[in-house]
Amino acid sequence: MSNSSSGSCAILGASGHGKVIAEIAELNGFTEIHFYDDRWPELARIEHWPVYGNSDILIKRIHDYTNIVVAIGDNATRLKKYRLLFEHGACCLPLVHPSAVVSNYAQLGDGTVVMAGAVVNSFSYIGKGCIINTVASVDHDCMIADGVHISPGAHLAGAVQVAECCWIGIGSQIKQLIRIGSNSIVAAGATVINDVLNNQTVIGIPAKPINRKEL
């Protein structure tokens, strides 16, 4: 599944993550990439791309763009920015790297980005403003809420449910039918075999809760 387009794509967040999104946009046929960042005008350029302004300026130009993507790693901040853009009528289409595999029976929410080599299998639902990062996999019938980040190399088995603004760490694994509560963190390399509560951080094999202050 891809969403080849043409025209201009605005990226809010001149970051390393933003650079990856810029390349995906180019691979999808966008001929102009315009960065915006709230550190502007101090931040005027990222690599060869100029930064055209901050969030307020982007909102004023919101209808100039075929697509707008928020490239901010923090889940809550990214989702907040998307909701502001949606309120102003922004077009925030899903963006899928050509090497990713997304089932025709899967659904991707507005503003979600699927990175290189990732897989989203049949009848999974990915919410708005999510990141399915490099070579991550989401198996059949998963339900991923808005603002979730599935980190590189993380793997979700079938029918996993992940609530809003969760961070699923790099190289982690989640057993089938598991529920991950909102604003929770699955640490890098963890193996989750039990449900995770809201606002909980789990770490290890098998994953167990830990006080975030201990990290």
Description:
By secondary structure, the protein is an alpha/beta fold. The protein has helices at residues 16-27, 55-60, 75-87, and strands at 8-12, 32-36, 45-46, 49-50, 67-70, 95-96, 101-102, 107-108, 113-114, 119-120, 125-126, 131-132, 137-138, 143-144, 149-150, 155-156, 161-162, 167-168, 173-174, 179-180, 185-186, 191-192, 201-203, 208-210.
**Strand line-up across the major sheet:** 6-9-12-15-18-21-23-24
Point out poorly predicted stretches: none
The rough form would be described as: globular
Q: Which structural class fits the helix and strand makeup?
A: alpha/beta
The main pleated sheet reads as: 8 strands, mixed
Helical content class: 10-25%
H and E string: EHEEEHEHEEEEEEEEEEEEEEEEEEE
Task: Compute the separation of the termini in Å.
Answer: 38 Å
Number of helices: 3
Gyration radius, to the nearest Å?
A: 17 Å
Give the averaged pLDDT, no decimals: 95
Structure summary, number of beta strands:
24
Any descriptors?
14% helix; globular; 215 residues; 24 strands; alpha/beta; six-stranded parallel beta sheet; eight-stranded mixed beta sheet
Summarize the structure.
The chain is of the alpha/beta class and 215 residues long. It has helices spanning 16-27, 55-60, 75-87; strands at residues 8-12, 32-36, 45-46, 49-50, 67-70, 95-96, 101-102, 107-108, 113-114, 119-120, 125-126, 131-132, 137-138, 143-144, 149-150, 155-156, 161-162, 167-168, 173-174, 179-180, 185-186, 191-192, 201-203, 208-210.
Draw up the topology in text:
Elements lengths: L7 E5 L3 H12 L4 E5 L8 E2 L2 E2 L4 H6 L6 E4 L4 H13 L7 E2 L4 E2 L4 E2 L4 E2 L4 E2 L4 E2 L4 E2 L4 E2 L4 E2 L4 E2 L4 E2 L4 E2 L4 E2 L4 E2 L4 E2 L4 E2 L4 E2 L8 E3 L4 E3 L5
Parallel strand pairs: 1-2, 1-5, 6-9, 7-10, 8-11, 9-12, 10-13, 11-14, 12-15, 13-16, 14-17, 15-18, 16-19, 17-20, 18-21, 19-22, 21-23
Antiparallel strand pairs: 3-4, 23-24
